What we know:
With about 325 residues, the protein is an alpha/beta fold. The chain has three domains: about 1-90, Arc Repressor Mutant, subunit A (Orthogonal Bundle), CATH 1.10.10.10; about 90-165 and about 265-295, Periplasmic binding protein-like II (D-Maltodextrin-Binding Protein, domain 2), CATH 3.40.190.10; about 165-265 and about 300-320, D-Maltodextrin-Binding Protein, domain 2 (3-Layer(aba) Sandwich), CATH 3.40.190. Helix content is about 40%, strand content about 20%. The chain contains 13 helices and eleven strands. Strands 3, 4, 5, 6, 7, 8, 9, 10 and 11 form a nine-stranded mixed beta sheet that branches. It has a two-stranded antiparallel sheet with strand order 1-2. Helix 2 packs across helix 5 and helix 3 (about 25-30) packs across helix 4. The longest helix has 29 residues, at about 65-90. The radius of gyration is 24 Å and the shape is flat. The model is unreliable at about 310-330 (pLDDT under 50).
Amino acid sequence: MLSERFNWDRLRVFRLVAEAHSMTAAARTLGESTPTVSRRINDLERELGTKLFQRSKRGVEMTAAGKRLLDLVQKMQGLVETVGDQVAEKNATIAGAVKIKAGDGLGPYWIARQLPDFHRTAPNVQVDLEIGLAVDEVVHRQADVAIVFEKPTHPEIISQRAGTLHYMCFASQAYIDEHGHPQSIFEFQNRKLLMHTAYVHQVEQWSKNIKQLKDFIDYSVITNSGTALLQLAGNAGGIAILPSYIAEVEPDLVPLHLPALAPIQFWLTYTERVRRNPAGMAAIEWLQSIFNEQTHKWFRSDFIHPNKMDGTAQILGSENVFDLTPNLQL
């Protein structure tokens, strides 16, 4: 069936071309090249088996089939907006309290950052956000939903892989101006490293290259606070190892041109009791959305350097990632 394989995004491109009477104007709106837009229209025409536009030097004119499709697309757009309004209205009627437990990094620097959006659609759900490492809290009802860094084995826990954290090096521009930009991790012996307690004592389990540096790395500061780590790095205190999404949270920190140190998977966990609770389900669906790797590329399994985080992002291969233990939990 056509609906099973149809690329619905092509309809958005079609609508923009139809309303602008120009592929160039539509390309400008989409931030794409004119040949790319033309190719997408060609693909849509091929899939539908009909011509939608007549091309000329003056632009494009819709065929009779194109006009019929535009009418249907506009009706579809209205239906989507109606669905959105109805869903938002439904969420507004959901009430209750949900306790979410997450680590010292994801909790305050990603989940809390997104909470206003959640409350715009579910304003009557109270969120209790507890910061700390979690394992099986959802079984003992110490939390309704928890972010964990090892896949649970308890039969009552429902777990979904939420994404991957990519740990890398950050420093302030002032620190780089004073000490220079390191070209490899082996230059760390002459630098100040800022480390989180959650992983500083796990160096023995890190990659071979890091283990070789153990005896002469100068840990300038060790702290159990992500906030302290960011403040230190931001004030030229040294090089901090942090998840790549920090580039979005703290744009003043410079992501160093070095490979990622570790890919660390994390899971969203809850129980059937929470899934059956409307407030709990609303929170689960929202958490899934804020870690969606299509919209938030930080959490993809492949590492993308923050400097490449755009429409032409280059995914770094495994040769650019040091393999560390999945015990880093920030």
